[in-house]
Design goal:
About 25% of the residues lie in helices and about 35% in strands. By secondary structure, it is α+β, with helices and mostly antiparallel strands. A hairpin with a 2-residue loop joins β1 and β2.
Length: about 160
């Protein structure tokens, strides 16, 4: 009976602490309000995939899947300004909302069909379809391809 009570108490503690809740993978700040998104919430948005070669991956073209920046900004009703993209290590880049076009960058959550670990530039990576648009093959766009993304601010 003691063992059963201890198990129930442990389960109750885990539930109360949120240990069973899915973790936030992206925090979005807009007009002073924060929205915490889980991976499931990101995956509930329309998915976009493309194949491209990057300077950070090996073996040729890689398939990325995620939320297009166009759908992401539309979800938050943002059509102008700047998106501050901040990584786990506090590295920050500024991405003009004008980059959020059809056929443009995505916030990738999968690479070659697998979720990305922190060790492999995940869990989120802003990636451009470098092979599709010659304009994207420049330092300006390479510098906006931020990995380990965990915060976004709309400014």
């Amino acid at each position: 009976m003691k063992h059963l009570f201890a198990s129930a108490l442990t389960a109750a503690t885990l539930i109360a602490s949120g240990a069973f809740a899915e973790d936030t993978v992206l925090t979005v700040t807009q007009d002073g309000q924060e929205t915490a998104l889980t991976m499931a919430e990101l995956k509930a948005m329309p998915a976009t995939s493309f194949e491209t070669v990057t300077q950070w991956t090996e073996g040729g073209a890689v398939t990325f899947t995620g939320v297009s920046l166009a759908d992401f900004t539309a979800h938050f009703e943002v059509s102008e300004g700047t998106m501050g993209a901040i990584a786990i290590n506090d590295y920050k880049v500024e991405i003009p909302v004008s980059d959020a076009v059809e056929g443009g960058p995505i916030i990738a959550y999968e690479m070659n069909g697998e979720e990305m670990s922190r060790r492999d530039k995940g869990p989120l990576w802003v990636i451009y379809p470098f092979d599709d648009t010659p304009e994207y093959q420049s330092e300006t766009y390479y510098s906006r391809a931020i990995w380990q993304l965990d915060r976004v601010t709309f400014e």
